[in-house]
Amino acid sequence: MIYFLVPVLLLFFSLAYAAGSGAPWVPTFKRDIERVRKLLDLKAGEIFVELGCGDGRVVLGVTKGTSVRGVGVELSIAQWGVAQIRRILTRSWKSRFVLGNLFSYDLRDADAVYFFLLPETYEKLRPKLEAELRPGARVVSFVWPIQGWTPEKVEEMEGAPKVHLYVR
Ligand SMILES: C[S@@+](CC[C@H](N)C(=O)[O-])C[C@H]1O[C@@H](n2cnc3c(N)ncnc32)[C@H](O)[C@@H]1O
To answer: Does any ligand 1 atom lie closer than 6 A to the CB of residue 113?
Structure first.
């Protein structure tokens, strides 16, 4: 019984801790990953960063079949572990997953940053994006806009959340 309980409790606390820090895990549909991919139109060699990458599906989906370098940052060890397994299974060696707090990840090298978090986390993240992103870097926010920024484009689809594109 204890062998079953310990991993379940670890998984639970890891997910709850990450949820309390910025957002709970909510998986992204394939359809929406494709919308993000099209909107960003990433070029070979660019660096794509997802802050709060969950199980890695967006990083791996957006960079699939390209030479874009993907980085996913995730606080929950459970989600990070799944992302690592997906990376190995899909042999996506150009992408990597960092276990840590998204607020500590240095964004100065990023060409494009994507996130799907809570609106209050977007608010907390804004000063970091303004301080670290180089001019021309793209930011995509899923579902909610970034307050105080003017989007370059808002991608809308019936029955689906909005995707907002910003250029610094
Ligand atoms: C809405 S989910 C994004 C899911 C991801 N796009 C996917 O489809 O799997 C938000 C993710 O952010 C992670 N997260 C929340 N706060 C975080 C923080 N401070 N640092 C890193 N990751 C965080 C959560 O663990 C969760 O996996």
So the answer is: no
Q: Is 72's pLDDT higher than 60?
A: yes
Please work out whether the CB of residue 28 comes within 6 Å of at least one atom of ligand 1.
yes
Instruction: Identify the residue whose tokens are 């993000």.
Output: 36
* Number of structural domains in the chain: 1
Q: pLDDT of 3-12, one tens digit each?
A: 444 454 455 5
Q: Specify the CATH number for the domain of residue 93.
A: 3.40.50.150
Residue identifier of the C-alpha nearest atom 14 of ligand 1: 52
- State which ligand 1 atom lies nearest to the alpha carbon of 26: 1
